[in-house]
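We were asked to recover a plausible sequence for a given structure. The inputs and outputs are reproduced exactly as logged, with field labels preserved.

PROBLEM: sequence recovery
POSITIONS: 329
GIVEN STRUCTURE:
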C-alpha cells in the first residue's frame, strides 16, 4: 500500500501532505453544477486543444446527441446527454411568444420588418401555443476524472507513473508508463484508459501545467455558464451546499451532491457534482469504494498463511525423535 492511502485513510490528512509535500497550496478541484450545463461541449474541445488529446470520433451513436459516449484515453472530458420524460422542478414546458421589454416594443413601433435570410424559429404551421406532449427535460453533465482522495490507481501503479501533485490532484506521467494496465480495473469510476495506438494510459490531469503557473484548467476557463467551477476544494464544497439549498427551495427537490462527502468510499472526490437525479442515471456508481481498501488485510492473511506453510514444511522435514539417518548398530 502507498503512503498516500495508509496515512490519509480516515485521518482527515490532506492528500498532498499525506503524499509527502510539506509546503503546498490548498487542495483544488472541480465543482460541476449540472443544473446549468447546456451541453455545448466547449469543455471537451478546450480539453482536447490544450492537452493535444487525439480526436476520438465524430459519428453519432444513434442513441443520443452525445458523440463521445464516455470517458477514455482520448476523451478526458465527456458531456452526457440524458433525455427524460419529466419536468425540471417548476419549469414550464409550453411554447409561448417571447416576452420583450416595453422599451424594445416601443422602439419597434412603425418599423417595417426586414428579412435577414435566417431560418424561422416558429413551428411549421406558424401557430405558437401550448404543446403538452413536450413535458420532458434534458440532463446534461460534464464528467471527468474524480481525482479521489484515496486513489486506487496510485496504489497499484508499479512504476510511479501515477503520482499525487502538490495540489492534491492525480496525474499520469506518460513517459514512464509501461502500459501494464493495472490502474484501469482499479479505478471505481472507469475513468483511466489505455490508448490502443501506444499502449499507455491517459486521463485528465486537471491541467497540471496550467495550475503550476496560476491558471485555471482549460475546461473551466471555456465553460460559458460556469457549470464547471474551479477553485479551492473546501470553498467549492461550501458553495455547492448553498446551491443545493437554493435549488431545493425553488422546487428542484431532486438536487443532490455527488462526491463531496469526505466520508464516502473514496474519501471524497477532488471533482464532485451537483446532480438532478440518481447517480446511476448519469452512469456513476451509487456508492463508489476505493478498490484497494482491503489490500492491507489481504496481505496480512497472506503473511499468516505463508508463516503457517513454512512451519508445516519445517515440521515435515525435521528428523523424528532425534534419530540420525543412516545410523547402524
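RECOVERED SEQUENCE:
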Amino acid at each position: 500500500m502507498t503512503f498516500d492511502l495508509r496515512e490519509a485513510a480516515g485521518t482527515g490528512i490532506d492528500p498532498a501532505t499525506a503524499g509527502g509535500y510539506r509546503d503546498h497550496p490548498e487542495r483544488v478541484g472541480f465543482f460541476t453544477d449540472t443544473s446549468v450545463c447546456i451541453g455545448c461541449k466547449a469543455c471537451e474541445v478546450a480539453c482536447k486543444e490544450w492537452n493535444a488529446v487525439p480526436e476520438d470520433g465524430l459519428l453519432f451513436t444513434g442513441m443520443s446527441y452525445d458523440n463521445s459516449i464516455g470517458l477514455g484515453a482520448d476523451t478526458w472530458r465527456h458531456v452526457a446527454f440524458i433525455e427524460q420524460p419529466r419536468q425540471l422542478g417548476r419549469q414550464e414546458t409550453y411554447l409561448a411568444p417571447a416576452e420583450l421589454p416595453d422599451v424594445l416594443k416601443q422602439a419597434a413601433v412603425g418599423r417595417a420588418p426586414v428579412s435577414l435570410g435566417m431560418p424561422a424559429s416558429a413551428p411549421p404551421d406558424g401557430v405558437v401555443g401550448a404543446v403538452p406532449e413536450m413535458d420532458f427535460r434534458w440532463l446534461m453533465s460534464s464528467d471527468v476524472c474524480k481525482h479521489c482522495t484515496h486513489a486506487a490507481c496510485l496504489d497499484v501503479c508499479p512504476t510511479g507513473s501515477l503520482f499525487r501533485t502538490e495540489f492534491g490532484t492525480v496525474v499520469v506521467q506518460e513517459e514512464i508508463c509501461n502500459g501494464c494496465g493495472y490502474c484501469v480495473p482499479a479505478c471505481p469510476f472507469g475513468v483511466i484508459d489505455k490508448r490502443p495506438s501506444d499502449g499507455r494510459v491517459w486521463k485528465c490531469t486537471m491541467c497540471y501545467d496550467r495550475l503550476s503557473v496560476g491558471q485555471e484548467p482549460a475546461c473551466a476557463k471555456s465553460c460559458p455558464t460556469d457549470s464547471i467551477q474551479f477553485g479551492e476544494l473546501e470553498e467549492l464544497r461550501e458553495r455547492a451546499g448553498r446551491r443545493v439549498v437554493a435549488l431545493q427551495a425553488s422546487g428542484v427537490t431532486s438536487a443532490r451532491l455527488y462526491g463531496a462527502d469526505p466520508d464516502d468510499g473514496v474519501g471524497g472526490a477532488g471533482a464532485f457534482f451537483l446532480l438532478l437525479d440518481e447517480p446511476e442515471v448519469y452512469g456513476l456508481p451509487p456508492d463508489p469504494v476505493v478498490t484497494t481498501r482491503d489490500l492491507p488485510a489481504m496481505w496480512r492473511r497472506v503473511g499468516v498463511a505463508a508463516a503457517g506453510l513454512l512451519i508445516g514444511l519445517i515440521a515435515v522435514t525435521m528428523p523424528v525423535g532425534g534419530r540420525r539417518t543412516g545410523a547402524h548398530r
